[in-house]
Amino acid sequence: MEPKDLHITDLFKQFAEAQAGLLRQGHDQRKGSASTLLTQLLHRFPLESDTSQLRHALVDPYFPVDVLVRTLFADVGGMRFFISKRRPELVDVLIGELRQWCTAFRRIQEDIRAHYDPDTITCIPLDGVKHQLPTDQWCTLCGVCCQIGGIPPEPPTTVHYPERWHIYLAGGAMDNQQVCPFLFQYFGESRFFCAIHNVKPLACRQFDQQDCRRRLSGRDLHLNEPTHS
Ligand code: SF4
Ligand code: SF4
Predict the structure, then answer these.
(1) pLDDT 10s digits, 168-211
(2) Using CA positions, which residue lies closest to atom 2 of ligand 1?
(3) What's the Cα-to-Cα distance from 203 to each of 88, 162, 185, 200, rounded to whole Å?
(4) Any idea where the domains of the chain sit in the sequence?
């Protein structure tokens, strides 16, 4: 099927795969494919809307494309229900949520640059260079524990958050927040890190290895997840 005929969910998934592949390997064929799919994706937004911020967010090496594939664009199932994200009536909702996500992502980056040091706020400098992520720790950076609707936005003592971070952390960055918007992806790989690791809220600092085991044994209701590494 041509990209222009795809449901927004399939279009986003194809874009995510091409973009993640491009960031991981960066060869020309993927570049063309990712670019074509991005153009099609941006065409789905209302003509009068400014898509430049969306474009910047979607091609950013830290944009969590895989997280959105496995939450926003993933079917949801439970004992007695199933919600397909390919329903025609969900198109406008999904487009709106994708816009909200991109906006939050860009604002968090702006805030980090304005109020903190992007070189030291997390485990790697946020300068677009592929610095090595830490490996000497029990956390594998799978990102699952940050797939939550919200957390108490209480910063460590001596740290002050920009006003909107309190809202974002508490779950108000978008209408249907399923993942913390501070969770960044590492260059298209299945590795995710907290963009504000060194100033993250107290609740996140207290999350330990036992909590991690409990969280991973529960997983979530979403049915499809990316399989590449
Ligand atoms: S679920 Fe556990 S391993 Fe995965 S990111 Fe959270 S702390 Fe790390
Ligand atoms: S602030 Fe960081 S550690 Fe806490 S939920 Fe968000 S991404 Fe995860």
Answers:
(1) 999 999 888 989 999 999 999 999 999 999 999 999 999 999 99
(2) 212
(3) 38, 18, 21, 8
(4) 46-218
